[in-house]
Amino acid sequence: MGFTHLNEQGEANMVDVTEKAVTQRIARASGRIYMKPETLALIKDNGHKKGDVLQVARIAGIQGAKKCSDLIPLCHPLMLTKVQVDFSFNEADSCINITTLAKLAGQTGVEMEALTAASITALTIFDMCKAVDPGMRISDIKVLEKQGGKSGHFKLSD
Hints:
This protein has 158 residues and is α+β, with helices and mostly antiparallel strands. Helix content is 28%, strand content 29%.
């Protein structure tokens, strides 16, 4: 199977989804942001002087998913019906785990929207905390699962 975003001449090409069936499509993605234990405690205790870091990051992640086609040139603009951003603290590794979900009934998948939500969420945490911890590290941005469409169900096996 070739790259769908290239035409026969090798030029950039937005995939034509006109004839694809409308199906329910769901994607889950994740990412992590590592930081100093003191920074993690500051976020967890909502003690940051800029406010509630996770709530701002959650809103940014949702907004990011909605703006995915503005950021990634060949993504289709989508009418998302649900975007969710969740957090869990991993004190042993001094990081915040980010999980996202993007959902719609449409003709193309939502993996890029879920990945964008995870990325923008992590970047927002970094932006809000960089003054106290410039050495934070974002990693492990990945698709965990996708459902719907012709290619069926995919679930990342760890």
